[in-house]
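Sanity check

After download, print the first record. It should look like this:
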Amino acid sequence: MSDLYHSRNRIWQDQFDSRRLADRLEKVIVHDEIEDRDREFIESRDMFFISTVDAMGRPTVSYKGGQVGFVRVVDTKSIAFPGYDGNGMFLTAGNIASREDVGLLFIDFENPMRIRLHGTATVCSNDPLLDEYAEAQFIVRVKVRNMFVNCPRYIHKYKKLDTSKFVPRQGCTTPTPEWKTSDEFEGVLPRDKS
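Expected structure tokens:
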């Protein structure tokens, strides 16, 4: 019995005669613990994408960025990362509070490689790691269900030019984004940001 595939995946696999390949991939590359090579890759990233599902079953995906290493491998079964000030919508955090299943995609665009990580997440505003991240509002912890290195052949090569000046750093004041100073948002910003 597969933990990765369900009946609808099987319909497509059978239509394109890839069930045997899919089963072999699951057996060979899918694992449920973070291995040393996974840790090294994850902790070397300064961005990733996370997918969540809201209370009505509608999916969304979010880009998360920070300094290299802002995603921390806590142990072989879990990772943690900070939630920073954003647009105040809290789509990711709210969705996690509603439905804990998440999918994360870590990508290296310069040396094409990617890891998919699926698991269950929690959000905590008093997590012990909170003080280790400048300006973090909460910590998201993800318990690994399964993960695997995904084929990189369609990853376009890009080169990083610069780190965002808005990424929080210890000992530095993070600038206010221009959109938060526009007339449309006057009087509605959180009290500590206005």
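If your output differs, re-run the checksum step. Summary of this record's structure: The domain at 31-159 is CATH 2.30.110.10 (Pnp Oxidase; Chain A).
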